[in-house]
Every structure is written in C-alpha cells, then in structure tokens.
Amino acid sequence: MSRRKLYRILIEGIVCAILIFALVFFVGFRVTKVEVKGNEFYTDKEIKKMVLDAPIAKNTILAMMIKTEEKTKDAQLIEKVTLKRENMNTLVVQVKEKKLIGYFDYEGKYANFDRQGVVQILTEEPIKDVPYIEGLDVKNVKQGEKLKGVNTKKLNTILSVGKMLEKTEQKPDKLVFNEMKQLVLYYGEIEVRLGSDENMDEKMNRLVGILPQLEGMEGILHLENITEDTQAVVFDDTQKSETDTSEEDGEETDPEETNPEETTEDTTEDTQEDPEADVKENTDENTDENQLEYSDGADAADTRSGKRE
Fold first, then answer.
1. What does the pLDDT average to over 150-155?
2. Mean pLDDT, residues 288-301 taken together
3. Rounded distance, CA 277 to CA 64, Å?
4. Going edge to edge, which strands form the sheet with 90-97?
5. Would you place residue 250 in the very low, low, confident or very high pLDDT band (cuts 50, 70, 90)?
6. CB-based contact 233:302 (threshold 8 Å)
7. Higher-confidence residue: 251 or 309?
8. d(C-alpha 159, C-alpha 145), whole Å
9. What DSSP element (H or E) covers 190?
C-alpha cells in the first residue's frame, strides 16, 4: 500500500470520527427538557427566557458556559442562578430568590424588604405570600438601601419574626403593631397576640404547632405570656362564643305548655338528688372542652369562650 493511499485512509478516518463526535455532541446532548426549581416570584417561562436565551443553551454541555450572573443582573429578586446537567438531555435551572419578609405602603406603591431590612423592590401590586406590615411609619424609602427613619425596636422585631416565619408553610396576611407597640399576627380570622419580645422563639414554635388545628376557626390565640414551662395556650373561640350567645337569646318558654304542678314536682325531685353527683357531673362537663394538641408533640392548648361576663 502506497504512502499516499495510507494518508488518504487516515484522513478519511479522522473526518469520520469528527463527524461522529459532532453528531453525538450536538444531537446526543441536545436539550429536550428544562426543569426550573426554587422560583416563586418569577415563572418558569420568565427564568428560561432570562437565562437560556443564548444558542449554546440548546446543548447541555455548552450551557454550563453561560454566565448566569450577567443574565440575571437586572432581576431584582434573584440572588443566584446555577445550571446543572442532570442527564444527556435534561438541564436543571436552580434559582435562589431573595427572601422578602414584608411590605408596606409608600407613596402609592408597595415597598418590599428582605430579612436585612433592605428594600428590594417597589411594586404596583402586593407580591404573593409576602405579609403586609402595619405600623412601621417609615419616612423615607430608597430601593436597594436599608430602611431608615423607622423605630429600631419595631424593625428588629419584624426582622426577627420574619426570619422565623420563613420556616412555616402558612404565612400571615399581615403583621400589626397594636397600641401597646406589641406585634400581632393575622391569619384570616385568627388573631395571634405575641406580647413583648421575650421568649419569641418559644412563642413561634407554639404557633407553628397550633396553627394547623385552627383552620376554619375564628378567634384570638394568646401567646403573650408563653415560656418554656407553659403547659397550655389559651384560644378565645369568638365564633363559638357568638353561637352560644345566639342560642341563649333564642331560648323561649311557652307559658301554655308549662304546668305549675309539674314544675313543682320536678323541683322537688331535683332537690332530692345527690348534690355531690351534680357537682361531679358539672365538673366533667367543664373539663370536656375542646383541646388543641400540638402537631410537633408539645403540650395541648386549651380553648375558652370569648364571652364576657
């Protein structure tokens, strides 16, 4: 075999190898599926458009070369985006968004701030699952800067509670400072009174355990005096209170159906019964009130009627 023919075979082999490699590289590693994870504020479509708008994003290997920091620099609520190749044809976009713990009204807009008290974004509409903060009295707001001109104690309380609420699935609708400058949380018709800043960790742990059991109820959950030694938590069920009041108001006695003689006999029979048995029966009825057990295995929480004597 001549040297020229040998070179020709060698070149043809190299070309074939390159073609096979190119075919495997561009077809075998072609992106056919994209998974977006960790996003709440932005939709999957928005993330894909933001990060995967380059031609190299069509290949799971080349996509690793995309500079996500440059792609997301204008996204105010994105902290970090990383790309991962799960298999030959699947690309995973992992999104880490900035944690917003509350918003308040400011000059006709909504100022949303994070766990450091930095205003991240001003929006025309509230952002889903970000609670409304009432009573901060912020004087000046600038996007990208920490809140200024606000009561330091109030702000620290909000930031502390906000970080704790990140662990819960159900976020409050709003957080309000009452007339005693104490924080109150609202979950629909449930009012949660936290009292002072003391034992706040324990109060939030109790709240997380009890809250699922209060679904569909109305009333006040008292956590003002909670400590590690507290055995029970009081919940004033206002809905039950209103029902009981309505039933008491609706009770009427028909004078035509009342027989004086029968009433006298009943009274006599009642007075002959064992008074100690009556006391015991009443005691049993009082202790048979609704009990709320903690989902995390902690102590039970008593419920009491919200009626006022």
1. 86
2. 43
3. 80
4. 33-37, 90-97, 78-85
5. low
6. yes
7. 251
8. 15
9. strand 190-195
For residue range 204-240, list pLDDT tens digits in order: 988 988 888 888 889 999 999 988 888 888 888 876 6
Return the closest-CA partner of residue 141 out of 160, 125, 157, 120. Answer: 120
Q: 10 Å Cβ neighbour count for 151?
A: 15
What are 147's two structure tokens? 């809140």
Report whether 91 contacts 83 (CB < 8 A).
yes
Nearest CA to 204 among 237, 178, 175, 236?
175
pLDDT at 198 over 70: yes
At residue 122, the 3 state secondary structure works out as strand
Of the pLDDT bands very low, low, confident and very high (cuts 50, 70, 90), residue 264 is very low
Return the HEC string of 64-105.
HHCCHHHHCCCCCCEEEEEEEECCCCEEEEEEEECCEEEEEE
Are residues 87 and 58 in contact, defined by beta-carbon separation less than 8 angstroms?
no
Task: Please name every residue paired with 301 in a beta bridge, in sequence order, or none if there are none.
Answer: 292
pLDDT tens digits, 35-53: 999 998 899 999 999 999 9
Tokens of 285: 């009825």
Dihedral over alpha carbons 34, 35, 39, 41 (to 10 degrees): 50
Supply the DSSP symbol for 255: G
Asked if 159 and 117 touch (Cβ cutoff 8 Å), the reply is: yes
Residue environment code for 54-76, b if the CB has 16+ CB neighbours within 10 A, otherwise e: eeebebbebbeebebeebbeebe
